[in-house]
């Protein structure tokens, strides 16, 4: 009988079918020497669990084209690639996050494209190439409200069918939720996750609905 691979909980954790490396893992320690993210992309933020949990419950059609905005280590997008065979691109203003995303994509056996861009630089023509846009924990300063709302509005107008954001519930994020509710029919849901060792809670913002199957 094949021996079950044991997990060393001090260097990695398992959640939602993913392997997530901790800072103490030797591959992470190696990356840290050369890559230092500077806009809080220095770790995996647990709002991504809210997105994974919600999408696990909602589902996504196989092959959905997913953009993860402000991706950091990109775990929400990696979850979509692994669980739903999604075609995923992670964008972030800070290129120093991409080696961490690439490592996690590799460890989880999926491919994710990356591109350095700020929210405000993404054009409608590019956004039209996606079915779903995700973002976790990307609205923590007041000055992020306008660019983030602008990105969501542009994505919806470009034909992105569903936008799903998650946040612990910071005031700037709540402002984005209010604008999306008023102008784009956005809905908010308080979401709690208790999945094995994982606990997380916060707010989900959902604009649009489950994307259609791609033919
Ligand atoms: C708190 S981290 C969250 C990272 C990841 N989404 C997660 O949940 O683990 C915020 C991320 O947003 C990125 N970011 C901040 N402002 C941005 C902007 N204007 N355009 C694109 N990315 C941005 C940062 O570089 C960082 O990776």
Please describe the structure with a list of short key phrases separated by commas or semicolons.
7 helices, single chain, binds S-adenosylmethionine, about 35% helix, 7-stranded mixed sheet, alpha/beta, about 220 residues, two-stranded antiparallel sheet, Rossmann fold
Task: Give structural notes.
- The protein is α/β, with parallel strands linked by helices and 215 residues long.
- It has one domain: Rossmann fold, CATH 3.40.50.150.
- Helices cover 34% and strands 25% of the residues.
- The protein has seven helices and nine strands.
- The strands form two sheets. A seven-stranded mixed β-sheet has the order 5-4-3-6-7-9-8, with helices on both faces. Strands 1-2 form a two-stranded antiparallel ribbon.
- Strand 8 and strand 9 form a beta hairpin.
- Helix 6 runs parallel beside helix 7 (171-184).
- It binds S-adenosylmethionine.
- S-adenosylmethionine is lined by residues 39-41, 44-45, 47-48, 70-73, 92-94, 97, 118-119, 136-138, 147.
Short description:
With 215 residues, the protein is an alpha/beta fold. Helices cover 34% and strands 25% of the residues.
- Helix-and-strand structural type: alpha/beta
Rg estimate, integer Å:
17 Å
Named CATH topology: Rossmann fold
CATH superfamily heading: Vaccinia Virus protein VP39
**Residue fraction in strands:** 25-35%
The neighbouring-strand order within the major sheet is 5-4-3-6-7-9-8
Total of helices? 7
**Main beta sheet: strand number and arrangement?**
7 strands, mixed
The small molecules bound here are: S-adenosylmethionine
Query: How far apart are the first and last residues' alpha carbons, in Å?
Result: 41 Å
> What's the helical proportion of residues?
25-40%
| Secondary-structure element string | EEHHEHEHEHEHEHEE
Number of strands: 9
Q: Segments where pLDDT lies below 50 for 5+ residues?
A: none
CATH class: Alpha Beta
Question: What number is the mean pLDDT?
Answer: 94
Q: Shape from CA axes? A: globular
How many discrete domains?
A: 1
CATH architecture: 3-Layer(aba) Sandwich
């Amino acid at each position: 009988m094949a021996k079950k691979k044991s997990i060393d909980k001090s260097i990695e954790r398992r959640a939602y079918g993913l392997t997530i490396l901790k800072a103490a893992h030797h591959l992470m320690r190696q990356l840290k020497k050369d890559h230092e993210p500077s806009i809080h992309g220095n770790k995996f933020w647990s709002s991504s669990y809210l997105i994974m949990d919600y999408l696990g419950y909602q589902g996504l059609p196989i092959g959905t084209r997913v953009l993860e905005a402000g991706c950091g280590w990109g775990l929400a997008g990696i979850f979509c690639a692994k669980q739903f065979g999604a075609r995923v691109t992670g964008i972030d203003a800070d290129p120093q996050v991409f080696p961490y995303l690439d490592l996690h994509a590799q460890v989880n056996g999926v491919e994710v494209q990356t591109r350095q861009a700020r929210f405000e630089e993404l054009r409608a023509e590019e956004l039209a190439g996606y079915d779903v846009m995700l973002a976790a924990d990307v609205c923590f300063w007041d000055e992020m409200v306008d660019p983030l709302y602008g990105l969501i509005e542009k994505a919806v107008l470009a034909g992105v069918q569903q936008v799903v954001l998650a946040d612990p519930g910071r005031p700037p994020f709540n402002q984005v939720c209010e604008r999306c509710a008023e102008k784009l029919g956005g809905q908010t849901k308080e979401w709690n996750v208790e999945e094995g060792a994982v606990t997380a809670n916060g707010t989900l913002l959902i604009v649009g609905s489950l994307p259609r199957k791609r033919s």
